[in-house]
Design goal:
Strand content: 35-45%
Structural class: alpha+beta
Shape: globular
Number of strands: 13
Distance between the termini: 22 Å
Oligomer: single chain
Order of helices and strands: HHHEEEEEEEHEEEEHEE
Radius of gyration: 18 Å
Helix content: 10-25%
Number of helices: 5
Length: about 210
């Protein structure tokens, strides 16, 4: 009976493991915007959004955040490598049409080796669109809406928060996209409420062999 339970746990987490590995690949591959995307911002045809995630008491080797255009409903997402929180100047940017945007969700994923097994966890962020105010992205602007704080179940304070790291992000933008550095705009969102916020989590062990 115990063996069956173990197998059940292993198979039930295969999807989690696959998602983590896929996101891991995206996080390492998504290095910079294409030259065409940068040029479109420079020519005031598009705008940019700098996204940043700060987990608190939440296992998060790889994360993701998505935004939605309020008018069109189009959703864009980016993967974020958040193993090292000390890398405050890291820049992950989306190229988007000018307009009003709102947070559309996100997630945190991690893997922890344990002998012949790997412990996996995947937490999906619920209710972000209601927790944060919308923000505007103008043509030719690179907007930083703040660094989004997501707290685990054992953390003190509400699920979602916001912090301002604009000084570090402006420095990071100048280093990574020098031609866009003079277009940086800090436009922090406001916290609206925490009514429907939560984490939808899955975890378990997979056999590495």
């Amino acid at each position: 009976m115990r063996l069956a339970t173990t197998k059940s746990r292993l198979f039930s987490t295969l999807a989690v493991s696959a998602a983590i590995m896929a996101l891991s690949g995206c996080a390492s591959a998504a290095k910079k915007l294409s030259d065409d995307s940068v040029s479109a911002i420079e020519q005031n045809k598009m705008g940019g959004i700098v996204l940043s995630l700060k987990p608190e008491k939440l296992k998060c080797q790889y994360g993701g955040l998505s935004v939605r255009n309020v008018k069109t409903g189009q959703t864009r997402a980016t993967s974020l490598l958040v193993v090292s929180w000390d890398a405050k100047r890291n820049i992950k940017m989306l190229s988007v049409p000018p307009g009003t945007y709102q947070m559309a969700g996100g997630n945190c994923q991690s893997q922890t080796p344990n002998g012949n097994f790997t412990y996996t966890s995947d937490s999906k962020f619920i209710g972000m669109e209601a927790a944060y105010s919308p923000f505007i992205v103008g043509a030719g602007e690179v907007v930083y809406p703040g660094t989004f704080i997501v707290r685990g179940r054992k953390a003190d304070g509400p699920r979602y928060g916001i912090t301002d790291l604009s000084k570090f992000k402006a420095e990071g933008l100048e280093k990574k996209y020098e031609s866009l550095s003079n277009r940086f705009v800090s436009r922090p969102v406001r916290i609206l409420g925490q009514g429907q916020s939560g984490l939808q989590s899955r975890s378990g062990y997979i056999n590495k062999n």
